[in-house]
Design a protein that fits this description.
The chain is an alpha/beta fold. Helix content is 53%, strand content 19%. It has two domains: 36-166, Rossmann fold, CATH 3.40.50; 169-268, Orthogonal Bundle (Arc Repressor Mutant, subunit A). The strands form three sheets. It has a five-stranded parallel beta sheet, sandwiched between helices.
């Protein structure tokens, strides 16, 4: 009797563990699908299938969506079919080599390309960059370096696209500050701030180029024009920055938006 009870409880425990395992698997699968909707897309191009398989496995473990191509023609076709966040492109390929593929892709897309070159072959690196590659990695490589290079390029491109959107958008919002470029109006917490024409031009330049430090000479040239550089006084910039801070900053002596880079100039902190 005691033995039968042990078998019974053991069977129940196995069923419970099976159900838990299935639930965990389902949750992981669901999470992966949700993440996959927005994950970066990578194209790996190499005729050595074992290398491609290893790179693909490692990148997919990090949540990337990976497509593969094993020759130049296939790589070009895939690049035409969709826009990738990064292309890992080997130089030595059957058919069109990596340089030709890179050059062809550059005719219709600016998608980032990392060339995979033979160790110590400086000419491959130079040619790759000349044909439009964004970076290169020498073989044999460490997969951690590959991942780091991919992340760096994606991060850099995200910043560029964000800056481009900021430049194109007629309304720029940074925290409580909203700047409407078309109507030339500025709001802080939905309260309109009255700025002079030059104060607006100065703020617009800084807001649309966040964290970029401009010297007083540069600001004088950008906002007041070339003539001002000849006859103007850079102290004009200091006066306008001070007046601007008095209007938009909660505490002008401890600015939130327009900051000073001592000995260099001014910048807008995003």
């Amino acid at each position: 009797m005691y033995f039968l009870l042990i078998i019974y409880f053991k069977a129940i425990l196995i069923r419970i563990l099976q159900k838990v395992s299935f639930m965990v698997y389902s949750l992981k699968k669901f999470a992966y699908i949700k993440i996959g909707e927005n994950m970066a897309k990578i194209l790996v191009v190499d005729d050595e299938k074992l290398i491609v398989k290893g790179i693909r496995f490692s990148l997919e473990q990090d949540g990337y969506e990976v497509d593969c191509a094993y020759d130049g023609d296939e790589a070009i076709e895939r690049a035409k079919e969709r826009e990738y966040d990064v292309v890992l492109l080997d130089v030595m390929l059957p058919g069109h080599d990596g340089f030709e593929v890179c050059q062809t892709i550059r005719e219709f897309s600016e998608m980032p390309i990392i060339m995979l070159t033979a160790k110590g072959d400086d000419m491959d690196k130079i040619l790759g960059l000349e044909y439009g590659a964004d970076d290169y990695i020498t073989k044999p490589f460490n997969i951690l370096e590959v991942k780091a290079r991919i992340k760096a390029i994606i991060r850099r491109n995200n910043k560029k696209s964000g800056a481009a959107k900021r430049q194109k958008s007629s309304v720029v919002t940074e925290g409580d500050l909203k700047l409407d470029r078309e109507s030339r109006r500025v709001f802080i917490k939905d309260k309109e701030i009255n700025l002079t024409a030059k104060e607006f031009d100065l703020l617009e330049l800084l807001v649309t180029n966040p964290n970029k430090v401009y010297s007083r000479e540069s600001l004088l040239e950008y906002v007041w024009g070339n003539k001002a550089m000849v006859s103007g006084d850079v102290r004009t910039v200091d006066v306008h920055v001070r007046r601007l801070r008095e209007k938009i900053e909660p505490s002008p002596s401890d600015p939130k938006y327009v900051h000073t880079k001592w000995g260099v100039g001014y910048f807008f902190r995003a």
